[in-house]
């Protein structure tokens, strides 16, 4: 970001401290445009501040004029009752015409033109074409989860996007079913994910951290639970993450010889002999389903069911047995595993996929 927008940002930041606006943001700072953490989001934030500032100024002006008008009218009618109509009252009646022309047409036209021009400039600045952005990741929207692909490295994941800090990376988005919208409020504006076509935007995170994203286009019953996280790493750490994720996890295929009796090996057998394999893939195993999220490095992910619950053993077991009670309308059917030991083994296997 150049110096000028930075100064504007600093100057205008004070505005959000005023009024209840900051209170709204404080409730959920995981998804707030008021906490921009990248250049793309800065542009949207500053535009928003201008809209808020101008809107507030117009509102104050209109209310002030209204109050003055009511007071004058009351005084005028009192005068009339006291003295009867006179030439002065008639003269003031002509003035509002000019006032309406200026305040009602010229001023709004000026403000709207200015705001529109500024919005176009912001739009241009944050437009994809950031040609210098590194094409890094493709995200495909599904009801109700996110497929995440790093085509160059052959990494496939879900509901979690990793990127290096301080680098402008390009995200290409598409959809497999209905229209979704890709939105990481702290990093960038929204972009629609439309079946049959591809859109792009760029992201750049200033600081390492976890930033929440959300589907921003109503796409069905579980639209609200179509969330994801963006994890920004230091560049070296990111490279290591990418290299690690390009490999099959060590635990994916323990014991080929048939006499491995460990819990993880038993869990693998449960997985491979269940209906899981029709929809899910795990690199290095016979599971190559593509309907549902790829589970290759499942254990290293933060959440289950696209941000619905934290990824831990308890939630995972509830999710496997009865996903419809957690996310009604999700496409995953419940799994019939009556034997608690089989379930424990399956959980142990999935949790080993680091
Ligand atoms: Cu996907 Cu809303």
How would you describe this protein?
This protein is an alpha+beta fold. Helices cover 44% and strands 17% of the residues. The protein contains 10 helices and 12 strands. Strands 3-2-1-5-8 form a 5-stranded mixed sheet, with no helix packed on it. The chain has a 5-stranded mixed sheet with strand order 4-10-9-6-7. The radius of gyration is 28 Å and the shape is elongated. Mean pLDDT is 83; it is low at 8-29. Bound molecules: dinuclear copper ion. Dinuclear copper ion (CUA) binds at residues 141, 144, 180, 215, 217-219, 223, 226.
Question: What distance separates the N and C termini?
Answer: 37 Å
Task: Work out the oligomeric state of the chains in this entry.
Answer: single chain
> Helical residue percent?
40-55%
Order of strands in the sheet with most strands: 3-2-1-5-8
| Unreliable residue stretches | 8-29
The gyration radius over C-alpha positions equals 28 Å
Biggest β-sheet strands, sense, barrel? 5 strands, mixed
| Share of β-strand residues | 15-25%
- Give the beta-strand count: 12
User: Which ligands, by name, code or SMILES, are bound?
Assistant: dinuclear copper ion
How do the SSEs run, as a string of H and E?
HHHHEEEEEEEEEEHHHEEHHH
Note the total helix count.
Answer: 10
Instruction: Tell me, briefly, the overall form.
Output: elongated
Averaged pLDDT? 83
User: Which structural category do the helix and sheet elements fall into?
Assistant: alpha+beta
